[in-house]
Amino acid sequence: MPPELSLEDVSRIATLSRLALSVEERQLFSRQLAGILGYVEQLQPLDTTGVPPTSHPLALISPMREDEQRPSLGREDALREAPEPDPAAGLFKVPRVIGG
Amino acid sequence: MTRPRTASDIRRAVASGETSAVACCEAALERIAQSDARIQAFRAVDAPQALARAAELDRRHDELAHLPLLGVPVAIKDNICTRTLPTTAASRMLDGYVPPYDAAVVERLTAAGAVIVGKTNCDEFAMGSSTENSAYGVTRNPWDPERTPGGSSGGSAAAVAAGMVPLALGSDTGGSIRQPAALCGVVGLKPTYGRVSRYGLLAFASSLDQIGPIAGSVADVALAFDVLAGHDPRDATSVAQEHTPLAQEGPASVDGLRIGVPRSLIREGVEPGVLEAFERALTTLDACGAAISTIDLPHSRYGIAAYYLIATAEASSNLARYDGVRYGARAEGDDRTLAEMYDRTRGAGFGAEVKRRIMLGTYVLSAGYYEAYYLKAQQVRTLISRDYDAAFEQVDAVALPTSPTGAFRLGERTSDPVLMYLADVFTVGANLAGLPAITVPCGVTDGHLPVGLQLTGRKMDERTLVRLAGAYEQAGGWKGIGP
Q1: Whose CA is closest to B375, among B388, B383, B365, B367?
Q2: Which sign, positive or negative, has the C-alpha torsion A56, A58, A60, A62?
Q3: Which residue of B has its CA nearest to A29?
Q4: Minimum CA–CA partner of B421 in chain A
């Protein structure tokens, strides 16, 4: 487990996270993230054999309901806060998705 | 300035006709106008709207006199959706964003007769322990303006501590209600996970987040809890629950209640003044009739590490929705592709701490690292929960100082993320295990900074916490003392 993160590691993680970082940010974060990962290393030696993971503090099963139509957010409300809405078409406009 | 009224007092006075909702609203707005330039607790205040709502309550007085929060001015943390006020989560990403719906808790407060006066400052997307991660400036601790109010619900805690409003909502993922409440000398409650609907709470970590009240007294916190708690089908993690109102509890005896102290956790790393106030509080509770004993929570020392793996992993998923498509800011520029737009929008919209946590979360969930980090943390989470289960076979509540230190100085920890994370060392356990926990003021340090006593209880047992905290408050003399 690396207590060190290279700038390439940070760039790769930034890409996965969809975050554009400046050079200074990449340097700062590589140092700081390494520090945090170093801190959490303390969990490694713990004996967790046979211990089930907890993803959730309650023993909940996904609640189900009848498949009945209910009122939901109207199109106008849904588009109102969008940076580039197309209200006539009822769409959100974005740059090219494929290619480029 | 006379001591501002508690929420309970205001409700009583408005219901009886002794005062009006408008008068109480005006008083709150005046105190905000007088204090907030200095403290900066609020992100948005809407006086005309609040006064209009108060006037409506007064007009319909006879019909509404029974409402449990009638005329009470309330502030809402800015990561909770309000249809009529911007909700920014203290992030540039949501600058000016007005949600198309109210959070469930906002609906409940309004239906209970409360008057929402504004939104409070917080750490960006609730990530932080000092409110210094707000993209819109810091909030100052009313006890010392050079110090932080704690975080992430620092604005809400400061607003109550400064007497601007008697009641405010915060959210708590790793301590974000309790730690600022303690550092500001007020009462804060994190309910059992699932007690209060998260519908309309901008999600940080879905298995840890809970909304809860911050107020100047245990009675007010209990009153607010009764309004907030309840099943909500719009939140799939909301639990069906029996709920006998807590606020009906008169001064109750705590004879026979057992309090456990995990002494191994406070042997080092706690400021002397905090430890002294904590020990005095235990003495008082003992004199009240509670039985104090030593217990062990052997895995709690790993809580911060487990928390910062789980919470950041969940955050990396929850914050993926902020992408400049449906809401929020989109970065200016000439993006050739969608991916470029995402990268630039998110790079510009998020602050440093948020980026750090998203990246850490992405990393620990990624192929090759998932087992060693995320899965391991979830297993440690199980061990921490089991420790509490074992403890609750012997005791009814676990006592610790809420924070290892009094309020720290602005800028003191901002360049060392891990140092900042350690502020939550005593609070994260309750989030990891899904347990309710309350903080109540129990003294001040030599430097005249507030200290909080934290009590953690069994799932769904807010009642025991309110009984113990209420009894302490009556006997301990820290009720209603302000900066």
Answers
A1: B365
A2: negative
A3: B356
A4: A36
Which stretches in chain B have pLDDT values below 70?
A: 1-4, 248-251, 477-483
Cβ count near B267 (within 10 Å): 8
pLDDT of residue B480: 45
| B176 is an active site residue | yes
Q: Does B294 touch chain A (CB under 8 A)?
A: no
| Residue whose pair of structure tokens reads 């005896």 in the numeric block | B253
Three-state SS at B451: strand
Nearest CB among B100, B316, B340 relative to A73 is that of: B100
Assess whether pLDDT exceeds 60 at residue A2: no
User: DSSP assignment of B367-384, as one string?
Assistant: TTTTIIIIIHHHHHHHHH
Q: How far apart are CA B308 and CA A33, in angstroms?
A: 12
Q: What confidence tens digit (pLDDT) does each residue in A42-91 have?
A: 999 999 999 999 998 887 778 888 999 998 899 999 999 999 999 999 99
B80, B169 contact by CB (below 8 A): yes
Partner-chain contact B325 A20, CB within 8 Å: no
Query: Distance (Å, rounded) from C-alpha B253 to C-alpha B463?
Result: 12
Q: Which of residues 41-100 of A touch B (CB under 8 A)?
A: 42-44, 46, 48, 51-58, 60, 62-63, 65, 73, 77-78, 80-84, 92, 94-97, 99-100
DSSP H helical segments within B149-271, as ranges?
154-161, 178-183, 218-228
Dihedral (CA of B7, B9, B13, B19) sign: negative
- H/E stretch holding B21 reads helix B21-39
Contacts of B385 in chain A (CB under 8 A): 54, 57
With an 8 Å Cβ cutoff, are B327 and A19 in contact? no
What distance in Å separates the CA atoms of residue B147 and residue B127, rounded to the nearest whole number?
18
**Residue A28 sits at the chain B interface (C-beta within 8 Å):** yes
Q: What does the pLDDT look like over B358-397, one tens digit per residue?
A: 999 999 999 889 999 999 999 999 999 999 999 999 999 9
The alpha carbon of residue B57 is apart from the nearest alpha carbon of chain A, in Å, by 28
Tally of CA atoms within 13 A in the half-sphere of B79 that contains its CB: 35
User: Which of B8, B35, B153, B176 does the annotation list as catalytic?
Assistant: B176
Return the structure tokens found at B299.
């895995």
Task: Output the CA torsion B123→B125→B126→B132 (10° steps).
Answer: -10
Confirm or reject contact between B302 and chain A (CB < 8 A): yes
Rounded percentage of chain A residues whose pLDDT exceeds 90: 73
- Any B CB within 8 A of A23 CB: no
| pLDDT at residue B28, as a whole number | 98
| B152 among known catalytic residues | yes
Interface test with A, best of B82, B195, B360 (most A CBs within 10 A): B360
DSSP reduced 3-state for A31: helix
**Location of structure tokens 């940080």:** B204
pLDDT at residue A1 tops 90: no
Residue B171 annotated in active site:
no
Q: Which amino acid type is present at position B162?
A: A
Instruction: Determine phi and psi for A65, rounding to 5 degrees.
Output: -140, 170
